[in-house]
Structure formats: C-alpha cells, structure tokens
Amino acid sequence: MKITIIGAGIAGLTTAIALRKYRPDIELEIFEGSPELRPVGAGLVLAANAVMAFDSLGIKDTVLAVGNVLEHFEILDATGRVITHNDNLAINRDLQTISNFSVHRADLQQVLLAQLPGVPVQLDKKASDFWQEADGVRIRFADGTETRTDYVVATDGIHSAFRHQLLPQSKTRYAGYTCWRGVTEAEVQDLSGFKNLTGLGLTGASETWGPGKRFGIVPLRDGRVYWFACLNAAKQRDERMAAFSKTELLATFGDLHAPIADIIKATQPTKILWNDIIDFAPVQQFAFGRVLLLGDAAHATTPNMGQGACQAIEGAAILGKTLAEQGDIATAFQAFEQKRLKRTTMVVNRSWQLGKLAQLENPLLAGLRNFFFRRIPDSMNERQVRELIDVEF
Question: What is the pTM of this model?
Fold first, then answer.
C-alpha cells in the first residue's frame, strides 16, 4: 500500500513523519514542485498546539533545539506604547507547555527532512492533473510525466492543483493588505529603542500597529531577527508595492518607533520577500475518496493568529493517529475530515477578522480598538492558549 504526498513543505514533511510513525507498513513517497527544497518565507512563530503535535511524534526536543522560546509577546502602538502584553513564561508554567517559539523555516525544514531517511523526495515535480481510478490515483506532472499510487495526501499549498480540481468554486481571496518579510543576517547592533519599551527585548516578540500598517519583530537564534511589515493596499498584485525597495520600506515604516528602521537597514535586500496576504473561505470537505487535502491546500489562513503552519503540523499528527485507528485508508480520510473541519474553520474565520482589526486605518476606530485591547484581562491570554491546546492527538 502506497501513499503519495504532494508537496515537501512543512505540511508534507510532517505528514510523512506522522505516517511513518503510526503506519510503518505503508510505503511513502513525496513529490515537490520546486527544483530544490527552498523554504517559502522567512521565520515562523509556532504555538503550543504545534509543540504538542511535535511531542506526539517524538520530535519536540529536536525541533525546539533549532528554535527560540519567546518569553513574551506584545502589541504596541506606533509610538511604542504597550497595547497588550502576554507573559508567555507564566502561561508556560501554568499550562505546562511552550506557548510560543520562533524558528527559521529553513532550519525547521532541515530538521523535518532529517527524520525521513529512506523516504524518496522527488524534486521539480509539480502536480498539474490527476485521475481517481477504481484501484488507485494517476497523477500527471507539469513536465508531462505520470505516476500511479494507491492514495494521495495533497499538501501542495494555497494554490493546490488538487483543490482546484476537486473544489473549483474555492477561489483565493485578497485580505486587503500586502506584506514584506525579512531576516537580518546578524544581530542588530542598535537596539536602544527596546530600552524604552516595557518588557520588550530580544527575548520576546512584538507587533506594532500603526494606521493601516503593522510591523512585527521576532528574535531568532544566533541574534538574527525575523520581521514582517504589512500595509493596506487597494488592489492585489499592485505594481507599486512589488517595486518597493528598502528605501520605500524605510519611508513607509521608518516613522514607527525604534528600532524598526534599524532592523530594516540591517537586512540584505536579497533577504526581503514580498507577497499579498490571501486565503480562501473555509471549505466543507477535505476527503475525496483516495485523495485528502491537508494544510494550506485544505484551509489556508491569513497569518494573524500565527496558525497557518500550526494547523498543518497539527493536522499531520492527527492524520497519523487516525490512520492507526482505522484500517481502511479512505475511511480514515473521512474520519480525519470530521475531526478537523470545525477547528480549521474557526481559525480561518477568526484570523480574517483579527486582520481587519489590526489593519484599521481610521485614527478614531484605531484609537477605540487600542483602548479596548488595553483592557483585555491577562486571563484572556491564557484562555486563548487553552483553546489552542484543546486538541486530541
């Protein structure tokens, strides 16, 4: 019995690890569309549910070894005044978990890949079409070659060829803002701005909310800093946004508090990525006979809750466990769908709504938002983490 995984990103590799752990009798193979295993993106912040999923797979310590546990997370206004403060260490103690840690995508991808000796990963094989047959699935790739398999787990991302064929009505939607991401090559030298910010330093992460724009700062290991900058944009694929250089980024975000300008300056232009923020409305089906959608192919979400990769990791671990419980793979795919639909729908919808709040451009509405957010009790932060870890692996 063979399962073919389409996509060798975080979702695909974690799925392969889970299937190898729970169903070692199944033959696995992975096809990746890129000519090399190049991580898409820069840094990640993974939450407690992802940590729990890795723990269930027996690789938590290995993953955490290349990550950076974040002691706190703050939302700030444009001047650096604190709007909300999450004491991650206190939450970790109370809930006996790791509520947030940061990791570079490339580091995580290498750790996951190292767990899969003997599993073939074929590169430059972008799936373009497929046909379900009585006894298997036939897949065609963009280079004209084909392969046959018994079952498919499609983890080929938000633009999944499998979802496009199975759910043609599911179209991506533009969130109304665009985003640049980067990683500094070395430790930022001028961090004087942090000294004026309550509780904020290289041990914690922050997100600054300005009018119609945001800037996130996430410390990685070895003194590097992952950052992201979101800006409202009237249209998708805006040529002006695509042409932004460091000069335009500094002009747009440099008026925010220190050390935001210094972090942008400390980033090599080749290390800055640009993408519009998109997702698609929640779908109501992941399992289609011998084919299962997983990760962004099934439930791509905006990044506002930091749950895109987390839900893929969580889903991979749950799929492995479900396959161990169900003898028939197609039946397991259906059972997996029932376990995941409600939770992933909640994440997609809540993240979309949070993004609208965070990107408010009207000064009056933004001021009211900040006023109410400052009055959110600390207990709410712990309650949100409890909701995330309320999942059965």
Answer: 0.95
Q: Is 165 helix (H, G, I), strand (E, B) or coil?
A: helix
Range of the domain at 324: 2-173+279-388
**Beta carbons of 20 and 119 less than 8 angstroms apart:** yes
**C-alpha–C-alpha distance, residues 312 and 110, integer Å:** 17
Condensed to tens digits (0 to 9), the pLDDT of residues 357-390 reads 999 999 999 999 999 999 999 889 899 999 999 9
Tell me if 300 is assigned to some domain.
yes
Helix (H, G, I), strand (E, B) or coil at 188: coil
Q: Span 228-248, mean pLDDT?
A: 97
Of all helices (H) and strands (E), which one includes residue 309? Answer: helix 308-325
CA 148 from centre of chain: 30
| Contact partners, residue 353, CB within 8 Å, separation at least 6 | none
Kindly report the CATH number assigned to the domain that includes residue 355: 3.50.50.60
Extract the tokens encoding 44: 């990640």
Q: Hey, what are 219's tokens?
A: 């410390």
State how far the Cα of 302 lies from the Cα of 313, in Å rounded to an integer: 16
DSSP string for residues in 44-94: EEEEHHHHHHHHHTT-HHHHHTTSEE-SEEEEEETTS-EEEEEEHHHHHHH
Q: Which amino acid is present at 331?
A: T
Looking at per-residue pLDDT, the higher value among 185 and 292 belongs to: 292
Distance of CA 262 to the CA centre of its chain: 26
Q: Which two tokens stand for residue 258?
A: 């220190």
Tokens read off for 323:
């396959």
CA distance 20 to 113: 13
What pLDDT, in 10s, does the model give residues 30-52? 999 999 987 666 899 999 999 99
CB burial of 357-377 (b: ≥16 within 10 Å; e: otherwise) equals ebbbeeeeebeebbeeeeeee
CA dist 216 and 75 (Å) reads 9
Number of domains in the chain: 1
Q: Given a cut of 70, is residue 340 above it in pLDDT?
A: yes
- 291-293 vs 151-154, strand pairing mode: parallel
Count of helix runs (H) and strand runs (E) in the chain: 14, 19
| 248 found inside a domain | no
Peptide bond into 259 cis (omega under 30): yes
CA separation for the pair 144, 114 (Å, rounded): 30
